[in-house]
Amino acid sequence: MSNLELKVLDQDAEAVACCSPMVREPLDEEAAADLAKMFKALADPVRLRLLSLIASHEGGEACVCDLTGPFDVSQPTISHHLKVLREAGLVGSERRGTWVYYWVLPAALAKLSSLLQAPAGASAGAAR
Amino acid sequence: MSNLELKVLDQDAEAVACCSPMVREPLDEEAAADLAKMFKALADPVRLRLLSLIASHEGGEACVCDLTGPFDVSQPTISHHLKVLREAGLVGSERRGTWVYYWVLPAALAKLSSLLQAPAGASAGAAR
DNA sequence: TCCTTGTTTCGACGTCTGTCGATACAGCGA
DNA sequence: TCGCTGTATCGACAGACGTCGAAACAAGGA
Lengths: 128, 128
Prior knowledge:
The structure is a homodimer. The first copy, chain A, is mainly α. Chain A has one domain (about 5-115): Winged helix-like DNA-binding domain superfamily/Winged helix DNA-binding domain (Arc Repressor Mutant, subunit A, Orthogonal Bundle). Chain A is built from 7 helices and 3 strands, in the order ααααβααββα. In chain A, strand 2 and strand 3 form a beta hairpin. Residues about 1-20 and about 120-128 of chain A have low confidence and may be disordered. Chain B binds a DNA duplex through helix 5.
């Protein structure tokens, strides 16, 4: 198979990738537990859609009342999912008068994004 | 947060990505369900460490025998987690003689990474 | 003040998930 | 061929998770 070549390419690219902690060195136990909490918050279709709804909403923030409509689940369930996202540090929230607004915390997403950065141009059908 | 800016700049070259960041437009139901499966595979400390062990292993691939040592859990449990990673499309595997080798599929990681990319300035009000 | 609307919390329920030991399967070497 | 080592599957179990309806809390208006 081409696995031999594969690994050589991977190794090559790894030298170039400067910001990919997970690929560069094994995660220690504590870091893994910490990161797993964030990924767990993303590991639900409703929460993923909530996050993208918030992030792509005009002004970068959304009222809860904007978020309940698009889903089939009950409003308390939405509230629960928002709480999970908030406690994972992925979103912030604030009450302003009658409504509660949520916004994405870009630093948290960036942290996960950089962690997952894989050597570009490596195997597995990656064009390039 | 200079860290964030740095990150975004670095990923400039990675516009290769297949998906636009979820901050640009809301995920549809189907895409969210699909992505949630991958994030679910990452949502466990043992699997995160397994993935980073594999990715950072010499040659970009690792034998199962290299992966059972660092963990407190049993060998069947490791095997189970590897299966989850494989079925999520995050790693590939192959038996070569006595041993089974696993390697990371960079395209999958890149897909998730690009999805989580946050626009540098967007909702920077997060300083709030 | 009371009522209405928006949001969160509570308690309960069924399902999914991580873990184990026991066991089956796959190659290699004697 | 047999036995040994490496890996995967099976069956079971406790705990975590997503969901709901009911109820509590918060803010504004009549």
